[in-house]
Structures are given as C-alpha cells and as structure tokens.
Amino acid sequence: MEILLFLITIVVLLSTIVWIIFSLYTVIIGDLLGAPYVSSSRDAVKQMIAVARLQQGEMVMDLGSGDGKILLEAAKLGCHAVGLEINPFLVWYSRRRAKKLGLQKLVKVYCRNFNKYSLKEADVVFIYLWPKTNKILRNKLESELKNGARVISNAFPIEGWIPAENPLRQSANVGKIFLYYKT
Ligand SMILES: C[S@@+](CC[C@H](N)C(=O)[O-])C[C@H]1O[C@@H](n2cnc3c(N)ncnc32)[C@H](O)[C@@H]1O
User: Fold this and answer.
1) pLDDT at 180
2) What tens digit of pLDDT does each residue of 69-124 get?
3) pTM above 0.85, yes or no
4) pLDDT of residue 167
5) Mean local confidence (pLDDT), 48-69
6) Gap from CA of 114 to ligand 1 centroid (Å)
7) How far is the CA of 66 from the centre of ligand 1 (A)?
8) Where are the domains of the chain?
9) Residues 29, 88: contact at Cβ < 8 Å?
C-alpha cells in the first residue's frame, strides 16, 4: 500500500513538473521569442496552403511550427517541409505525427530558434507570429530569401511590405492571410 502511494505521488509530481515546463515554453518562452503557441485553425491552414500555391518538390519552412500541421499539409502535397520550433514538446509531437503519417522523409522539425536558421533554401515561408516579431524578422527575410520566394503570414501583416493580393478572409473562422513575394 505504501509503495503504491509512493508511486502515485511520483507520477503526480512528474506530471506536474512536465506540465509546468510545457506551460513555460508554450506561454512565456514562445511569447518572448516570437509568439506563444496558438495553432492556426484548420480553415486558416487550408487557406494558407491554397494561397501559397505549393508545387511538388518545393522547400517550405514554418517559422515557429507549433504542432506541425502546416508542415504535414505541405508534405502531403510532395513538398519538403522544415519546421523551426523552440518548444521541445511540440517538436516531439510534430515528429511523431509525421512518422505516423509516413511523412518523416519529407518533414524535418528542428528544436531551434528560427532567427538562427538560414532561410536561403526556402521557396515558401509560413509565419504566425506577433506583429513586432514580423517587424524584426523582415530584415532576415529580405537578406536571406531568394527572389520570388513567397511568405504567407497568418493574422498579422509584415510592416513595410505590400501584400501581393488583398489580404484574404473568406470565412468567419479565419483572420486575414497575407501573401508576399520576395523581390
Ligand atoms: C502562434 S504559434 C504558430 C504555430 C504554427 N505555425 C501554426 O500556424 O499553427 C507560434 C509558434 O512559434 C514558436 N516560436 C516563437 N518564437 C520562436 C523562435 N524564435 N524560434 C522558434 N520557434 C518560436 C512558439 O513556440 C509557437 O509554437
């Protein structure tokens, strides 16, 4: 009986520690480095993918890839998809989902700060970050992306850039989606 109580206490303690670390990454660390973890809605992902007009074989990057849902949709279309995500729990979860769907050869998720990762290989970049983060990221996008690369931003514009089309908003569930071409 005592051993059982001891084991239950250990399990509860470990779960609490994991939950605290997860929350710390999800809310505080994510927020400080770019944006907290809020997954794009299913409708928004659909629209972002449609707006990107992805071609098989293209290199797609999601800066702050969250649970990896954009990466998986891109890979289903035959794209190479790279996710940069600071939250190790979300990195683990996205890799697991990619493996489950048999997409692990096309989907790579790195537990890295996207500010320290080169974007020069990207044909398409997805972002869903705070406006202030987009503003800081702009220099990096301008200096590293190849000409013609597309940048699709969920919800927030990139200050100083002019979207290629009017920001899309086709359903009540979806905020604005901004498409830019690197020139
Ligand atoms: C609003 S969520 C977007 C998730 C996903 N892109 C989507 O649209 O569903 C932003 C994500 O960026 C991650 N993040 C924030 N700053 C980051 C940084 N500097 N490097 C890597 N990931 C970052 C957060 O942990 C969070 O998961």
Assistant:
1) 95
2) 999 999 999 999 999 999 999 999 999 999 999 999 999 999 999 999 999 999 99
3) yes
4) 63
5) 97
6) 9
7) 5
8) 42-181
9) no
- E strand intervals along the chain: 59-63, 80-84, 107-110, 124-127, 150-154, 177-181
Q: What is the DSSP letter of 125?
A: E
DSSP 92: H
Ligand 1 lined by 91 (C-beta under 6 Å):
no
Q: Are 119 and 141 in contact (CB under 8 A)?
A: yes
CB distance 74 to ligand 1 below 6 Å: no
Closest CA to 126 of 15, 39, 23, 57: 39
Residue 168: its pLDDT value, please? 63
Q: Is the CB of 83 under 6 A from ligand 1?
A: no
> How far does residue 134's CA lie from ligand 1's centre (Å)?
12
Q: 65 CA to middle of ligand 1, Å?
A: 5
Probe residue for ligand 1, chosen from 23, 51, 85 as the CB with the greatest number of ligand atoms within 8 Å: 85
Q: Model confidence over 123-181: pLDDT tens digits?
A: 999 999 999 999 999 999 999 999 999 999 999 999 999 998 766 655 555 678 999 99
Say if ligand 1 is within 6 A of residue 40 CB. yes
CATH of the structural domain 42-181, one choice from 3.40.50.10490, 3.30.200.20, 3.40.50.150, 3.40.30.10? 3.40.50.150
